[in-house]
Amino acid sequence: MFKPLEIFIGLRYTRAKRRNHFISFISLISMLGIALGVTVLITVISVMNGFEKELRERILGVVSHATVQAVGKPLQNWAEVGESLRDYEGVTGIAPYIQAEGMLSQGAVVNGTLIRGVLPSQEGEVSKLGEKMLTGKLDNLQPGEFGIILGKDLALAMRVGMGDKVTLITPQASVTAVGILPRLKRFTVVGVFEIGMYEYDSALALLHLEDASRLFRLEGGVTGIRIKMDDMFAAPQLSRQLINELPLGYSASDWTRQHANFFRAVQMEKTVMFVILFLIVAVAAFNIVSTLVMMVTDKESDIAILRTLGTSPASIMGIFIVQGTLIGVIGTLLGTVGGVALALNVETLVPAIEQLFSIQFLAADVYYISDLPSDMRVADVIKISSASLVISLIATLYPAWRASRTQPAEALRYE
């Protein structure tokens, strides 16, 4: 008796047994459809977030959060510049690097490669290469010994392993008595790593910084300095700050620029997937329209009586909005609970299903990511649930408005 009239009658209509069981069936289907749509949407978006996070971590296991370079020339005073970079807020590690291109040959096998010169003592501050070694270790790179560490797929393509010799051909040429010849240097394989990204496993080769500087005639200089931060998403802000504060002749970049197209493509795929799956929720929500239209037709005499007792059209409209919204709320709550539970346990459920049915969704010999990672974000859950509630509310407006337009005399003429 203390409830507003609209809520009291709306809830009563929802609980009451209906003469037309088909209306109850449509209401149940609408509720389950919304619940299923919200569950699927939360789960799929969480899995896509998981894939994005996994790929980002694998890429940033090789690529630093930010880099500083000298424009058009090697960076000579890199030790001094590197120490000054440690003073910036959020910077947790720095390491110099040399980057160049070359060709590796071994017997009749020739393969293009990306050469990176590193300091083993500092490389662990900015990358996870040391943790990804299959054989050997980063410390095997010693200055003057001309050791080389290859990616797993590159080593397989070159058909070499620990202790084998490979020849590195650099783009710089040497002028000799017999003419201009490419520069060649023999290296010994002292390690093999696997990042899990074919782009790097099939092309990247690591040298000691001093060997790379000598090979590419940088006279002790480096290509630039790599920076790691405690918050990777603060890297763009740091790069802009460095551009403004570093002296003329220096440039700065960050990981979002280096792989901008890749992360835009991932974001676009996630957005498109959200729109497609949200249509499931929309279809289920608009079943509420059918439910309420039939309910309005079924309750015309009740509406007419309420109108003759003085109930306003706005109150009649509110009654059916309450009833339709209740269907959306229950469906959304069920879907949210189900989606959160599934997203949090998908990494356990999928292996169990694979074992039960003796199948494998992502074959390890085909995909580098062979499991289904999940990264459920509260913001996504709130956004999906809110959108479901809003579209459920919108679906109630037309039937409720139609109910409010019922004329008592017309509705009671044949009663």
Q: Nutshell version of this structure?
A:
This protein is of the alpha+beta class. It has helices at residues 5-15, 21-60, 78-85, 120-123, 152-158, 198-201, 209-215, 235-245, 255-258, 260-298, 300-308, 313-357, 378-404, 408-411; strands at 66-70, 91-106, 109-118, 133-136, 147-151, 165-176, 179-193, 204-208, 224-229, 250-254.
Mean pLDDT: 83
- How many domains is the backbone divided into? 2
Distance between the termini: 29 Å
What value does the Rg take, in angstroms?
33 Å
Strand content: 15-25%
- Could you tell me the number of beta strands? 10
Structure annotation, total helices: 14
The helix content is 40-55%
Which regions are unreliable across 5 or more consecutive residues at pLDDT < 50? none
Q: Taking strands numbered 1, 2, ... along the chain, how are they ordered across the largest sheet?
A: 2-3-8-5-7-6
The major sheet is characterized as: 6 strands, mixed, barrel
Q: Which structural class best describes the helix and strand composition? A: alpha+beta
Shape descriptor: elongated
Q: Give the topology string: H per helix, E per strand.
A: HHEHEEHEEHEEHEHEHEHHHHHH
Topology:
Blueprint: H1 5-15, H2 21-60, E1 66-70, H3 78-85, E2 91-106, E3 109-118, H4 120-123, E4 133-136, E5 147-151, H5 152-158, E6 165-176, E7 179-193, H6 198-201, E8 204-208, H7 209-215, E9 224-229, H8 235-245, E10 250-254, H9 255-258, H10 260-298, H11 300-308, H12 313-357, H13 378-404, H14 408-411
Parallel strand pairs: 3-8, 5-7
Antiparallel strand pairs: 1-9, 1-10, 2-3, 2-6, 2-9, 4-7, 5-8, 6-7
Helix pairs in contact: 1-12, 2-10, 2-12, 2-13, 10-12, 10-13, 12-13
